[in-house]
Design a protein that fits this description.
The complex is a heterotrimer.
Chain A (H helix, E strand, L loop, with lengths): L3 E10 L2 E11 L4 E5 L6 H9 L6 E6 L2 E2 L5 H4 L1 E4 L11 H11 L4 H14 L15 H13 L5 E5 L7 H18 L2 E6 L2 H7 L2 E6 L2 E6 L1 H6 L4 H6 L6 E8 L2 E4 L4 E4 L8 E4 L4 E5 L7 E8 L3 E8 L2 E8 L9 E6 L5 E3 L15
Parallel strand pairs in A: 3-8, 3-9, 6-7, 7-8
Antiparallel strand pairs in A: 1-2, 1-4, 4-5, 9-10, 11-12, 11-14, 12-13, 14-20, 15-19, 16-17, 16-19, 17-18
Chain B lengths: L1 H34 L22 H8 L1 H31 L7 H13 L2 H11 L5 H10 L14 H26 L3 H9 L4 H12 L1 H16 L3 H7 L10 H12 L2 H28 L1
Chain C lengths: L3 E10 L2 E11 L4 E5 L6 H9 L6 E6 L2 E2 L10 E4 L11 H11 L4 H14 L15 H13 L5 E5 L7 H18 L2 E6 L2 H7 L2 E6 L2 E6 L1 H6 L4 H6 L6 E10 L2 E5 L11 H10 L3 E5 L4 E3 L6 E11 L2 E8 L2 E8 L9 E6 L5 E4 L10
Parallel strand pairs in C: 3-8, 3-9, 6-7, 7-8
Antiparallel strand pairs in C: 1-2, 1-4, 4-5, 9-10, 11-12, 11-13, 13-19, 14-18, 15-16, 15-18, 16-17
Helix pairs in contact in C: 2-3, 2-4
The chains are: A alpha+beta, B mainly alpha, C alpha+beta.
Chain lengths: 356, 293, 363
């Protein structure tokens, strides 16, 4: 069992609070992602887990035991660095053996673990090569093997693929997910790329200035964000968040261009609607239109920027529709997809209302 | 955890700390002690008995009125004032040249470094020979100018100091060159490109980008050279012995003379300590200014 | 006026040829992206336009004027470096004013233009701060402002958003585009991110290993890739490219994709193109341009991985060399292990010659 938990952990650097009363649990064998903008505390949390920093308050638990006072060497957490830090003068196999040799493990165990890790990561055929002779992806797998061979409780990765080309990132993140499944270990992963986080994580934690705003499966957080901050953070293009007014039996936003029935939700200050849920149709004369301000054709879908009154919205339309700048359109949506936010920015319950 | 590391570090380096303390602080204390007395090895007693010849601060007041001391300091200042800027500008010019590639760069580099490797005393003897009235320098000058030159460099009170300066510049420009080359290499190339693209000419680039970024290195180079130049001795002494007369008597030469010829070690200790204090203050001030940038 | 003509550009670095031959015309006021993976020659091309490198062969013309011999300080181009190259020993204001001061503009003009640019880029509150230590997002704005304030007619940007975090990247893309529209500059933008190029560029020049692969508007390149490289590189994810052998079926000529089964029957123009090619072909279709079909029709592949990314779901089908991807809406409710029955939309199928990689016309 390799469960990692934080109970009310706080870490300060002078006046600045890097981690503010954070509590979460990472289950065994989970691919857990910390996600947030720069300086939101993600790397600090990693360092706290590793033991490179001591919390100012709260407890850190590994396998149910409090490890605040345990040194990094004893904690059995492995780290894969962004620059991999492979020893250039040793072969891949020697690199992988290194942590075990340091610990004076028996040679038989070392070879067994090496074989096991190499098989899991499909690098058996390159074990004899030097890091300089390996491709980027191969080097990454050797680095992961080196981390896993210690049989750690969990391994950590801090933004490992952000330096790669966009295309390579897309392919590598699928690889990493596959590796984690096959290796069968808890992986704690930090990134600031929301697509990456959504793709790889079993569960994720969204951070804002050191505070954990929401924890859950990516799909969960995407469909039901807890606050406007979280809602804006996941999803590209960003969720449309508009001020609303109560009108009759429902709400109205964007100077009337968007009208939604809602009998159950009271006191909403803003609504959120994802661009892919915003439907756009040519203006037929009824209701208030919105105007197309910009059309970004991206091939498989098109991002349309619309203005209605003094508000700007974006819609993500499938394919390559014939929409031109200046054209007037009618907006609509499935009321079940709308999220209502209170004045403080937190979500009120999602509406289960009547379709328009 | 951090505290443990620091504590252990302190304990491990304790023997070295004690040693350094002994080597640096003890002699200073001894020097201070002697400087407050009239002691001289001619006195017949061991230095431990020097307290018997206590003269409180008489040595220090003496040195304030010592004309010869102040002349020596003046000459030293003159040497510094000429040599260091010349070495700096020459070094900077050479370093700038070496930023680009040119054929024979490696060879030129090795040749340029050589003067620094020469033992200062040997350099002194070398220049002694070069500056003789019938020597190579006069020969070359004669050929350049057209008619014979037989200047007696080292015997002319007006020219001897100049000869010494030439020797110093020859020997220490390479050091400036090396330090400034490292400094120049540390200026990010991208920024220079960006400045060029924005329309800045080579001089503008140098003044607005290169020099400001080299402030620390320039400060270090100048500080090192000024301190070393202040102490100039070996080369000079072998070339001129401090002469003719006192024409090339810099502070080190003066101290050497009164220490070895007049043997008034109490006074010498006072001078040395006074210089140490003044230089230390200057150093700290210079470092503080550099740290601020 | 500021058109750029690149004629037969070649660049060698010793034995290594970074750019094999490049012919490109960029119209006045156009936003062109040089797109390709690392090492494709895009930065080299841009450095030559700026004058930082000299072409080994070929010419670069600005408005018909040959730029050979014009040093980089005199070309009147703005350049934003990948790592910004901000003068970190100067304040933000001094950075912005640098070019104007270097060209000796009068003081009040300098102040006026710097203030206007700072307003535009929301840097007004930072103007008198030292630029060292500022966040990457702000430095990026300063880098752009520093060049933009000179009002160059040509603006070159070398992967300016690669160091910036993902969320800010989308914000900056919009700002850069708006900036370009406002000032009507000819903008050349180097990137390896095809989505970025698609979002921002009027036209995209796709490059690989020093060779220009295709030039066109984002939609042109997306809809009609000229070869396998472009087909695979553009789109997230890229086009599915499956090798197949022609096989006669009851309903017409189709392609046998080996372990992935058979394609639906090809259309007449496709069959004609196939016969003309007389070689092995690659069957291409975009992951998002498919329709689900009942069992027995179309193609059937096992789902090996489900990637749910916000608005879309990417289904990974098959394994290794016999794999494909399909992008669907989120409500599809499909799981790993199930078999997906689908068919590419007829108008979305593209055929390529396997050996050369070139797209078959008319298919």
């Amino acid at each position: 069992m390799a469960e990692i938990a934080f109970h009310n952990v706080t870490k300060r650097y002078g006046d600045m609070v890097a981690v503010d009363n954070a509590s979460f649990t990472v289950a065994d064998n989970e691919f857990f992602c910390f996600f947030g903008p720069p300086l939101s505390g993600k790397s600090t949390i990693l360092r706290l887990i590793l033991g490179l920093e001591k919390p100012d308050a709260g407890e850190i638990l590994i396998d149910g035991k409090v490890v605040n006072a345990v040194s990094p060497a004893q904690r059995n957490i492995a780290m894969v660095f962004q620059n991999l830090a492979l020893f250039p003068h040793m072969s891949a196999a020697d690199n992988i053996r290194f942590p075990l040799i340091e610990r004076n493990e028996a040679p038989a165990i070392i070879e067994a673990r090496l074989k096991d890790a190499a098989e899991k990561l499909h690098i058996v055929h390159i074990l004899h090569k030097m890091p300089g002779q390996l491709s980027g992806g191969e080097r990454q797998r050797v680095a992961i093997a080196r981390a896993l061979v210690r049989d750690p409780a969990a391994y950590l990765m801090d933004d490992p693929i952000s330096a790669l080309d966009a295309r390579l990132r897309e392919e590598t993140r699928v690889e990493l997910k596959r590796i984690q499944r096959e290796a069968g270990r808890t992986l704690i992963y930090v990134t600031h790329d929301q697509e990456e986080a959504m793709s790889v994580a079993d569960r994720m934690a969204i951070l804002e200035h050191g505070v954990i705003r929401q924890v859950g499966a990516p799909v969960e957080i995407y469909d039901n964000p807890a606050t406007t901050y979280v809602a804006r953070f996941l999803g590209s293009p960003t969720m449309n968040i508009l001020p609303v007014q109560r009108v009759g039996e429902g709400y109205e936003a964007a100077s009337g261009a968007l009208r939604i029935q809602s009998q159950t939700v009271v006191g909403a200050a803003e609504l959120g609607l994802r661009p892919e849920d915003l439907r756009v149709q040519p203006f037929a004369g009824k209701g208030s239109p919105a105007t197309v301000a910009e059309v970004e054709p991206l091939g498989g879908y098109t991002v349309v920027t619309l203005t209605a009154g003094d508000v700007s919205l974006r819609a993500m339309v499938r394919g390559q529709p014939d929409l031109r700048v200046g054209v007037q359109v009618t907006l609509s949506c499935d009321p079940a997809k709308v999220i209502y936010f209170g004045a403080s920015g937190t979500t009120l319950t999602r509406m289960r209302g009547v379709a328009q | 955890m951090k505290d443990d590391g620091a504590k252990l570090g302190f304990r491990l380096t304790l023997p070295a700390q004690v040693l350094v303390l002994f080597i640096s602080v003890f002699p200073l204390l001894m020097q201070l002690y002697i400087s407050l007395t009239d002691w001289s090895p001619l006195a017949g007693t061991s230095w431990t008995q020097a307290w018997a010849m206590w003269n409180t601060f008489a040595n220090y007041t003496d040195l304030i009125y010592d004309q010869r001391l102040w002349s020596a300091l003046g000459r030293t200042a003159l040497v510094i004032g000429v040599c260091v800027p010349v070495e700096f500008l020459l070094g900077l010019g050479l370093a700038t040249l070496f930023m680009d590639d040119f054929p024979g760069k490696r060879a030129a580099y090795s040749i340029l470094i050589m003067p620094m490797m020469v033992v200062p005393a040997v350099a002194g003897y070398m220049f002694f020979m070069l500056f003789q009235s019938g020597g190579p320098i006069n020969d070359i000058l004669s050929n350049l100018i057209g008619h014979p030159i037989t200047v007696a460099w080292l015997s002319d009170p007006n020219l001897a100091l100049l000869a010494v300066m030439v020797a110093d510049i020859w020997q220490w420009t390479p050091l400036m060159f090396l330090i400034l080359l490292a400094g120049l290499a540390g200026v990010p190339e991208d920024q220079i490109k960006a400045a060029t693209l924005l329309g800045a000419g080579p001089v503008q680039r140098f003044v607005t980008i290169v020099l400001p970024r080299m402030k620390t290195i320039i400060g270090i180079a100048l500080a090192i050279r000024v301190i070393e130049c202040f102490k100039i001795f070996d080369t000079l002494f072998i070339m001129t012995g401090g002469g003719p007369g006192v024409a090339t008597e810099t502070i080190s030469v003066y101290i050497y003379k009164i220490a070895t010829q007049d043997l008034i070690w109490g006074y010498v200790a006072a001078i040395a300590l006074a210089i140490l204090i003044v230089l230390s203050i200057a150093c700290v001030w210079a470092l503080k200014r550099m740290a601020r940038t | 006026m500021s058109t750029i003509h690149l004629q037969n550009l070649v660049k060698h670095f010793g034995p290594f040829t970074a750019l094999k031959t490049m012919d490109l015309t960029i119209a006045d006021g156009e936003f062109v992206a040089l797109l390709g993976p690392s090492g494709c020659g895009k930065s080299t091309t841009m450095n030559m336009i700026a004058g930082m490198e000299r072409p080994s062969e070929g010419r670069i013309l600005f408005d018909g004027r040959d730029m050979a011999g014009v040093p980089m300080g005199r070309r009147g181009v703005g350049f934003v470096f990948q790592n910004y190259a901000i003068f970190t020993h100067l304040t933000v204001r001094q950075n912005l004013a640098y070019g104007l001061r270097a060209t000796r503009r009068p003081v009040d003009e300098v102040n006026r233009r710097v203030s206007a640019m700072a307003d535009l880029l929301q840097l007004t509150t930072m103007l008198d701060r030292p630029s060292a230590g500022l966040s990457v997002n702000i430095l990026q704005r300063v880098a752009i402002g520093r060049s933009a304030v000179m009002e160059p007619s040509i603006f070159l940007l070398d992967e300016p958003l690669s160091n910036v975090d993902a969320a800010f990247r989308t914000v900056m893309r919009t700002e850069l585009k708006a900036l370009q529209r406002q000032f009507r500059q000819t903008m050349v933008y180097v990137t390896h991110d095809q989505l970025e190029a698609m979002t921002m560029a009027d036209r995209i020049a796709v490059m690989d290993h020093g060779v220009l692969q295709q030039v066109g508007t984002p939609l042109e390149i997306y809809n009609d890739p000229a070869n396998l490289f472009v087909a695979r590189f553009i789109g997230s994810p890229g086009m599915n490219l499956l090798q197949g052998q022609p096989v006669e079926t009851a309903t017409g000529l189709a392609l046998d994709l080996g372990p992935l089964g058979q394609t639906p029957p090809l259309s007449e123009p496709q069959v004609a193109a196939l016969r003309q090619a007389q070689a092995d072909v690659v069957y291409g279709f975009r992951p998002e341009l498919v329709a689900l079909v009942p069992e027995g029709q179309g193609m059937a592949m096992p789902i090996t991985f489900v990637e749910r990314i916000g608005a879309r779901t990417i289904l990974h089908l098959g394994q290794g060399s016999a794999s494909a991807k399909v992008v669907l809406e989120n409500d599809a409710g499909l799981q790993t292990g199930q078999v997906l029955h689908f068919a590419p939309l007829p108008h979305a199928i593209r055929l390529f010659e396997a050996a050369s990689g070139i797209a078959l016309k008319g298919a």
